[in-house]
Amino acid sequence: MLRTLKKLKYSVRVMLAKGGGQPETINLHGRPTVVSSGGEGPTFVYLHSTLGESFMWLPFYQTWSKSFRVLVPTHPGFGQSGGFERIDTIEDMAWHYLELFDALGLEEVILGGVSLGGWIAAEFAVRWPERVKSLWIADAPGLWVENEPLPDLFRIMQDRNKLRDVLFHDPTGHMASMIIKDNPAEEDMLTAYQSMTVLARLVWERPYNPKLAERLYRIQCPTLLVWGDHDRLVPPAYGEAYHRLIPGAKLELIKDCGHLPMFEKEGEFVETITRFCTG
Fold it and tell me: What pTM did the predictor assign?
């Protein structure tokens, strides 16, 4: 009963947040890119995870929009964003965002992302450090960490209970069952297929960039690393590795949290990043 009430409460918050973000499609040399935006203030770009949480304006975007001009682009290959046929590597994703920022006239942004989005943010920041005012990275792969191999997400995807186990600290909680449904709709299945197609193309042979570690010293801006302390997909050891390699970076662990802090520990996640980016 309590879990049902929590689901209803979150659904109401999603409905209330929906009117906050306005989507538009930017044509990048023949590649349509959907970008949702809301709020006023310093430009804050959120790069989404493989989950594809850019498809609607979610409560945590709405909260950030009280302090920032929030931009949430949808990666090529997700949703209605095109151009995936030209994407072969994470580096291609980074170049895509350089072109998007140029098209939007953004000289400098607050940049961050979760999981895949955090990896893309890191790749962008090492190439164009002058374009990033501050950087935050949450629960992101991208590095090789000895004795901490990443689990096979493609295999885990076949079992929804195992997927909840690996993504959430509390796999029986209301958010776990909302995000990973037992009986997903056809639209949800299509989204999942799109996500896995993108991920397979980017990381099937190697789920990290062997050159990223030696490039992280190039990041010049204040950097925050946020990790769920019970992330079973990309363990905190990856956050510690980023912490060692990025000059002056700060690492914060969110207690009793898995791989998706924006859902499992939304309040603490949003507050931690807001405090860092406005400090």
Answer: 0.96
